[in-house]
Design brief:
The chain is elongated. Among the domains are: 70 residues, Serine Threonine Protein Phosphatase 5, Tetratricopeptide repeat; 39 residues, no CATH class. The chain has 21 helices and two strands. About 10% of the residues have low confidence. It has a two-stranded antiparallel ribbon.
Length: 391
């Protein structure tokens, strides 16, 4: 009974200790909030209200009052960079780096932010130098990603391969597709300089990095053609079908030209018509249409386009049908058909675009790397109107 009474007496004691601890924490919190400059809350409020100009003014006041505040310098520098005032951002981060009392982690952060300032300003050499100093810091991964962006901008594909491989090995995400594209860029350059054997070696590495790389397969055929191996090139281009049927449209003209060279144009037309039945495409219709006119005549070409229009009704297909109609139209209707075709063609020029699936950037030609967002393989191999019809 005495033991139970002692326990009851202890309850108020422990309650009092808890109350004192809570009061100490609250007092510390209040005192810390009182030490924060009023401008901090003003700046934060302006940021929340999306008023960066006023936020900058508030943070500048704080930095003047407390020049030792590193966090405020970082916030101010980032705001300057976001506004495009890169010179002011650079000065802020350079001042931070010049401080001898700055802790190691904050020094690395200042070096990284300075590199981002240089990158934003287009000073790529200085940005590269800043990021290279971060290899043994907590910002190593972010610095490598920034270096990868720099090397792609400068088209230094070998160095891009090294950095992308390092990122992949460090567990910072898969980079196979990008690495394959970098090898393809090198191979493309080798083909331009009439070095098909060097291109073949680079394309082998591209396919080792990414077996599904359509671009590497297409360029492999181009390299074989440059070595006068037309049959080998045809086999390479036909492999695209097994990787991605929609991408067959990108090699349709190559295939048709190749079959003409080996004296088997009808085999080429039959193959492309089979592809067309499997995956309709305006670009594919264009190639098949011309080949059918050449081999089988205008009437067969008209029938081809009519069948495709029934399957996939598009203005681009209608434009092709009007083109076929004009070829053998009587003189009294030719002028009317020509006028209709011109009207349709004007509108289809707006629809005959490829569109990036990431940023929406539209272009007349197909790109492996989007000119808008610089991402790889974000362009579907179909025109925008075809995608709209499919959706």
């Amino acid at each position: 009974m005495e033991f139970e009474l002692w326990m009851l007496l202890g309850i108020p004691f422990f309650f009092g200790l808890g109350w004192l601890a809570a009061r100490v924490d609250i007092n510390e919190l209040v005192s810390e909030s009182r030490t924060l400059p009023r401008g901090y809350f003003k700046g934060l409020n302006h940021l929340l209200n999306e008023q960066p100009d006023k936020a900058i003014d508030s943070f500048i006041e704080i930095v003047k009052l407390d020049p030792e505040s590193a966090d405020m310098h970082f916030a101010l520098g980032n705001l300057f960079r976001r506004r495009g005032e890169t010179e002011r951002a650079i000065r802020v981060h350079q001042n931070l780096l010049a401080r001898p009392d700055l802790p190691g982690e904050q020094k690395a952060q200042a070096q990284y932010e300075l590199g981002m300032d240089y990158l934003k300003a287009g000073l790529l050499d200085r940005a590269e130098e800043s990021f290279n100093l971060l290899s043994d810091t907590p910002f190593a991964v972010q610095a490598r990603k920034a270096l990868l962006e720099i090397y792609q901008r400068e088209k230094e594909w070998k160095r891009a391969i090294e950095v992308a491989t390092g990122l992949q090995e460090s567990g910072a995400g898969a980079r196979q597709k990008e690495i394959a594209q970098f090898y393809c860029e090198l191979a493309q350059d080798a083909l331009v300089h009439l070095q098909p054997s060097d291109a073949m070696a680079l394309l082998d590495k591209a396919l080792q990095a990414d077996r599904s790389s359509v671009r590497a397969t297409i360029l492999h055929g181009d390299a074989l053609l440059a070595q006068d191996d037309v049959e080998g090139a045809l086999l390479a281009w036909r492999r695209v079908e097994h990787q991605s049927v929609p991408h067959v449209a990108l090699v349709a003209q190559r295939l048709m030209d190749g079959y003409r060279k080996v004296g088997r144009p009808q085999e080429g037309v039959n193959l492309l018509r089979a592809y067309l039945a499997e995956a309709s495409s305006i670009d594919l219709i264009e190639v098949v249409f011309k080949a059918v006119i050449e081999l089988d005549g205008v009437e067969a070409a008209k029938q081809l386009v009519i069948e495709e229009l029934r399957r996939n009704p598009t203005l681009l297909g209608l434009d092709k049908l009007l083109e076929a109609r004009l070829m053998d139209a009587p003189a009294h209707v030719w002028e009317e058909l020509s006028m209709v075709k011109n009207l349709v063609q004007r509108y289809t020029q707006k629809l005959a675009r490829y569109q990036c699936s990431h940023c929406g950037f539209k272009a007349r030609q197909f790109y492996w790397q989007c000119p808008g967002c610089s991402r790889w393989e974000t362009y579907p191999p179909r025109r925008t109107e075809e995608l709209n019809v499919m959706n």
